[in-house]
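Q: Could you fold this chain for me?
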Amino acid sequence: MAPVNPKARKVGCAALLALVLPAASAIGQDSPLAGGRTFSSGFKFVEMAGEEIFANVCQGCHMTDGAGATGAGSYPSLVGNKNLETKGYPVYLVVRGRRGMPPFGDMMTDGQVAAVVNFVRTHFGNSFTDVVTARDVEDARR
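A: Sure. Below is the predicted structure, expressed as structure tokens.
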């Protein structure tokens, strides 16, 4: 099997998001499928809390327990992940993406990126307590 072109992978992820986000937004808040969760509409996420962003955006690949998955692709485990120790690294990944992870920088505010990075860095067996701020994210976008 031929290796997948990284540009094609990004296009594929963007296409998947384009299909999933409108479908998710079509589920009303009162729907049993919504489960009381907030769904984003369009290409900007509305979730503000790190746990909510993780649940609605990240856990589809990194799984509910943060353990990641392997199958059609490889989604790294966030459990006890030493790569999260330096707060700039996960900020960069969320904003700009890397390999199979699409860039979410255009879909999240600086505060949303900070919130989800702080959530991941303090859950799943991680205990990195130096807080990522919206200013840190703003600086990383430059």
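A (continued): The chain has a mean pLDDT of 80.
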